[in-house]
Amino acid sequence: MIRPQNDPAEGGLPRRPLSMTRAWTLKVTLEGSEPPVWRRIAVDQWTTLTELHRIFQVVMGWVDLALWAFEVGDVIYEELDMDAEGENATFTAVGELRLKPGQRFLYRYDFEADWVLGIEVEKVTTVPDVELLPWVLEGERAGPPETVGGPVGFREFLEAIADKDHPKHDHYHDWVGEGHDPERFDCNMANTFLGLAMAWGAIGSVPWIGDG
After folding, report:
1. Taking Cα atoms as reference points, which of 94, 112, 78 lies closest to residue 28?
2. What are the residue ranges spanned by the domains of the chain?
3. Is 114:30 a contact under the CB 8 Å cutoff?
4. Phi then psi for 109, rounded to 5 degrees?
5. Is 59 helix (H, G, I), strand (E, B) or coil?
6. What is the pLDDT of residue 48?
7. Closest by alpha carbon to 77, among 92, 64, 67?
8. Under CATH, which number does the domain 19-143+185-212 receive?
9. Helix or strand (DSSP H, E) at 76
């Protein structure tokens, strides 16, 4: 919420102009998921790709067990490592990608399992600095257990969980626990975990107002 500023004509303090930032709204979809697993996320232009990786880990319910990379056109961005051949994701901000609304890039996680998130830039807006980014705006369905075996294993997992007569139903049910619901995504919980990640310093934070 924006607090009303005092009007000098009414004896209040002079108005102080709000500083501005650019917010990127990203639609993130798990490639090959049916029905689709997706998230809509707002991030600041200065969010690095390494931070974006950590944001995706949080909102998909993953715990960063494997290697990852971003593909933006023909350019690969990776975490700084002696064996890395791509560009340095730690020193590359989202705003530096110079993508326009409607353009897409990819995030690959666990090259053996081959999880792929398709990322569409939905809009880029200039907004006042009064709330916190990153922020999950909405989404649908739980992210896949990251060690389930990639998209093929995820499809089998969903079939087994939904069918009590499936030969692997009990195995998967015991594995993920009673409370797991593939159809449920808790946006508030995701934002709570993002807040914790920011508090721990794993993700930077900047102010934001929403749709501006």
Report:
1. 94
2. 19-143+185-212, 144-184
3. no
4. -135, 135
5. helix
6. 94
7. 92
8. 3.10.290.30
9. strand 75-78
